[in-house]
Amino acid sequence: MYASKGRLRVHLLQYSNLGTCSKPSCLITLLHPRRTSLPNPFNMGNLISAARRSSTSKSNHPEAVVFSQQDITATLKQEGYNDRDHGRITWKTLFSSDRTSTSALTAGIATCPPRREGQPRTFGGHLAPHRHAHPEIYFVIRGTGIVNVEMIEHRVEAGSVVFIPGNAEHSVRNESLTEDLVFHYCFAADSFKDVKYKFTNDAGAMGRISTSNR
Fold it and tell me: Which intervals hold domain Cupin type-2 (predicted)?
């Protein structure tokens, strides 16, 4: 049964397993949630859970690392090679645990400039033959070129993706006379420091330069 008084509705619910009882102690009184400013008791658990999630979210959950196009262009350091043994290529590191709050993946964007007409291919943008233990993925963003994996040439263009097995010798070169070859690369490694490059022309040396993590 229920009784109404003014704008406040009071519900009186009687326990069925207590039989007939005329004492107020046998009755449960609930305030109608729509007619009072008191908290709805049915929602208290959700409110408490939300408060707990809010207080612990910053400490218990990892945060994303995001770079805008402006960040990549103006802020991130450009590195590269410019010699016959290693290549003519520049790159910008996006994610590497020694520079960013990231783990498990290392990634960046590399650019091979075009060569001028009449120049040998080695004068154009390229990354010389090399290998490393970590598998690698290339995703071509712009331009056209050749990716050579274990002496097999693969023609690539914007939208092409290449998987390079670990320890496979590979190289990249730009085939265009007018356009950069730009590609994204990614390793399953915490940091570039974990990826040991061995260039064929280095006769077993690591092939790194002082300004590079490659």
Answer: 125-178
